[in-house]
TrEMBL record, chain A:
Name used for this protein in its record: High affinity arginine ABC transporter (Permease)
Residues of the ABC transmembrane type-1 domain: 18-207
Pfam families membership: BPD_transp_1
Principal cellular location given in the protein's record: membrane
Keywords: Amino-acid transport, Cell membrane, Membrane, Transmembrane, Transmembrane helix, Transport
Gene giving rise to this polypeptide: artQ
Transmembrane stretches, start-end: 12-39, 189-210
Topology within the bilayer: Multi-pass membrane protein
From TrEMBL, chain B:
Gene3D superfamilies (UniProt xref): P-loop containing nucleotide triphosphate hydrolases
Gene: artR
Chief location of this protein within or outside the cell: membrane
Topological relation to the membrane, as annotated: Peripheral membrane protein
GO cellular component terms attached to this protein's record: plasma membrane
Source organism of this protein record: [Clostridium] ultunense Esp
One Pfam match: ABC_tran
Protein name: High affinity arginine ABC transporter (ATP-binding protein)
Keyword tags: Amino-acid transport, ATP-binding, Cell membrane, Membrane, Nucleotide-binding, Transport
Length: 218, 242
């Protein structure tokens, strides 16, 4: 059986996998970015305690493997809270929390890369802290943030493959099922690799389009 | 108009301003000179609270700046500041740079702010640059736009922090001329500068600072031609040598 035949034969599994992977990626992208933005605000805040909290969180998340984190959420929810958590939900929580840490760092460094003189000029004109952030800092920072954020989104799509380790029926999981039912070890993997690549390549093209439009505004 | 009482400022354990007392009248043009690291810039940055004084009081029109809290924005709207490195907003056009603050602080409507900006650009001879972005301008043009941006808020006093130090020599004149015109129409100005000739010509009073202290102050002619303090003499002989 060649690749195309294999795909048609087992398309049912692959389509479920596509749906789950896309849903997982999309939802964790939204949740992760939102949480990441909040975390970056904490990290840039004046309160020492708030900064410490976000620092500890970011360091721990970035310093442990995603596969461990996903297992911790999945099994931890049962051991600690006695809840039998759905695999998809556990994966969603773990991937979102993981992504939030990276997004927070991306936003923080994007904001801090703006020359302090911009803030001073804005404040010396009598604009408030909020106005300075909104009209002076963010429009400039976004140009640094967006490319890095695009990379993070691409990484996120790929990392969702870890969800298959706790039994979530994503693309990676589909390839495992097809491997064992078709007795082919190699070709099912090629098919998921191609599908993952289509997702990530499309996404980076779309982000590239955004970036160019932003650059055009100058 | 501005009263500074017993102002002290530390950066960490280093004291950069030592018990400064100073009063500035409306319409006065002050030249602030002294060697680098003498605290001149820190002093004027304390006046609009970009630096927080460690102790002492600064009054702007009888209002204590340190106690103003959120009111600091309102005070800053009356105090213009021009920086050595311009700090124009690179993502905004020249016109937007000038109209941004008056519109956001609801001082002027968008139309009125634009009228005012165009008028200011005309006096700066830069009207043709109104839709340009700062990145395409020369240093002298940028600095004149930065002055226009401050003036758009109708400030009662203007602070100039070594505004010609980052400019190519042939552009210094165009910026100094704008400042000279401002002085002529009675603007209250505090000018930190290394341009001794300019200070001599334009300043009503020149203050010499060293090591965080005001060493000597006098009207421009007397301070330059007849300095009393040894430290002032030393400094002037060095800068006037060439």
């Amino acid at each position: 059986m060649n690749l195309v035949e294999l795909f048609i034969e087992y398309k049912y599994y692959y389509l479920i996998g596509v749906r789950i992977t896309l849903l997982l990626s999309f939802l964790s992208l939204i949740i992760g970015t939102t949480l990441g933005a909040l975390l970056s605000i904490l990290k840039l805040s004046k309160g020492k305690f708030l900064r410490a909290i976000s620092n500890i969180y970011i360091e721990i998340v970035r310093g442990t493997p995603m596969m461990v984190q996903i297992a911790l959420v999945y099994f931890g929810s049962y051991v600690i809270m006695g809840v039998n958590m759905d695999g998809f939900l556990a994966a969603l929580i773990a991937v979102s929390l993981n992504s939030a840490a990276y997004v927070a760092e991306i936003i923080r460094s994007g904001i801090q890369s703006i020359d302090k003189g911009q803030i001073e000029a804005s404040r010396s004109l009598g604009l408030s802290e909020g106005q300075t952030m909104r009209y002076i800092i963010m429009p400039q920072a976004i140009k640094n943030i967006l490319p890095a954020l695009g990379n993070e989104f691409v990484t996120l799509i790929k990392e969702t493959a870890v969800a298959s380790t706790i039994g979530v029926a994503d693309l990676m999981y589909a390839s495992k099922i097809v491997q064992s039912t078709s007795f082919q070890p190699f070709n099912p993997l090629i098919i998921v690799a191609i599908i993952y690549f289509i997702f990530t390549y499309t996404l980076s093209k779309v982000i590239g389009l955004f970036e160019r439009r932003l650059a055009h505004n100058d | 108009m501005i009263e500074i009482e017993n102002l002290n400022k530390y950066f960490g354990s280093k004291q950069v301003l030592k018990d400064i007392n100073l009063e500035i009248e409306e319409g006065e043009v002050i030249g602030l000179i002294g060697p680098s690291g003498s605290g001149k810039s820190t002093l004027i940055r304390c006046i609009n609270y970009l630096e927080e004084p460690t102790s002492g009081n600064i009054y702007f029109k009888d209002e204590n700046i340190a106690n103003s809290g959120k009111g600091i924005d309102k005070i800053r709207q009356q105090i213009g500041m021009v920086f050595q490195h311009f700090h124009l907003f690179p993502h905004k056009t020249v016109l937007e740079n000038i109209t941004l603050a008056p519109v956001l602080t609801e001082k002027l409507t968008k139309e009125k702010a634009e009228d005012k900006a165009i008028e200011l650009l005309k006096t700066m001879d830069l009207l043709d640059k109104k839709d340009a972005y700062p990145g395409s301008l020369s240093g002298g043009q940028k600095q004149r736009i930065a002055i226009a941006r401050s003036l758009a808020m109708d400030p009662e006093v203007m602070l100039f922090d070594e505004v010609t130090s980052a400019l190519d020599p042939e552009m210094v004149g165009e910026v100094l001329n704008v400042m000279k015109d401002l002085a002529k129409i009675g603007m209250t100005m505090i000018v930190v500068t290394h341009e001794i000739a300019f200070a001599k010509q334009v300043a009503d009073r020149v203050i010499f600072m060293a090591d965080g202290k005001i060493i000597e102050q006098n009207n421009a002619l007397d301070l330059f031609d007849n300095p009393q303090n040894l430290r002032t003499k030393e400094f002037l002989s060095k800068v006037l040598e060439y």
